[in-house]
Amino acid sequence: MDIVVGVAQCSDGTFLLVQQFRLPVGQPTLELPAGHIERDEAPADAMRRELLEETGHDALQVRQIGEFFTAPHASDELAHVFACETQECIGQVERHLDPDEQDIAAVRLTQQDLTDAINAGRISDAKSIAAWHLYHALRFT
What's residue 79's pLDDT? Predict the structure, then answer.
């Protein structure tokens, strides 16, 4: 099953991440918004859905900027990476979270703080690191 990963920038210039406890590693992680693409769902629609569910922000615009295999030695999972412009959603958001996403919180970081968090190892999620570097390589910031 393929996934989407979003580099989501708010109108104030900050970037959205999610902090959540990840059972396989036994600790909270800080990651870019991401999730699985549902059957018969377009990647852009999945990105909009995941962004809203995980952060409470609507995607004003999503633009696919690349893709990569997450672990080609073990899986054919393909990550579709999006640059997203967002606005905070007003009103109640219907959330369909996975069992391991119950304690999820949206976090905003500046571009520098996000880069510093990666460099310091505070963000150790490979899909987030790869998506952030792809975003910068294409000069979106």
Answer: 98
Burial tier of 68 (Cβ tally within 10 Å: 0-12, 13-18, 19+) = middle
> Between 111-119 and 126-137, two packed helices, what is the crossing angle to 10 degrees?
130
Instruction: Check residue 139 and give its pLDDT.
Output: 75
In the structure encoding, which two tokens stand for residue 35, read together?
């999730």
- Mean pLDDT (whole number) for 18-37: 95
The structural domain count of the chain equals: 1
Length of the chain: 141
If you average pLDDT over residues 77-91, what whole number do you get?
86
- Distance in angstroms (rounded) separating the CA atoms of residues 7 and 51: 10
Residue 90 has pLDDT above 80, yes or no: no
CATH at 31: 3.90.79.10
Q: What's the domain range around 104?
A: 3-137
